[in-house]
Amino acid sequence: MIHDTACDKETKPQNVDFTIHKDGSVSTASVLLESEFIHICLVGNFNREYDAMSKEQKMQLFAASKIISELSRRYSISPLYLFPHSETCPGAHFPWNELVIYPVGGYH
Ligand SMILES: [Zn+2]
Fold first, then answer.
1. What is the 102 CA–ligand 1 centroid distance (Å)?
2. What is the residue extent of each domain of the chain?
3. pLDDT truncated to tens, each residue of the chain (108 aa)?
4. From ligand 1's centre to the CA of 9, what distance in Å?
5. How far apart are CA 98 and CA 108, in angstroms?
């Protein structure tokens, strides 16, 4: 599940599993909070078109896409199995396509 810090809920580091900071660094919770969802929070407001984002935000999205592909490998879940937290978080303009690295060769 994807959040950004413009979230209506509190997205403090202790409430999410992965926090991606504005400098592209990532903090990780020591244990997963919920078994059904892995929460990933992007610091900043990501409710905009990809082309309108800053270089830093694009780096954050890239970091997120790497985490997602890593997690999908580790837990055998599809990298397409992504959910927004709500209608406003991370927002209607969030560039979902930028988060998915389509696996080369695919899964069988
Ligand atoms: Zn949220």
1. 25
2. 2-99
3. 899 988 866 656 567 899 999 999 999 887 776 777 889 999 999 999 999 999 999 999 999 999 998 888 888 888 778 889 998 999 999 999 888 766 555 555
4. 6
5. 23
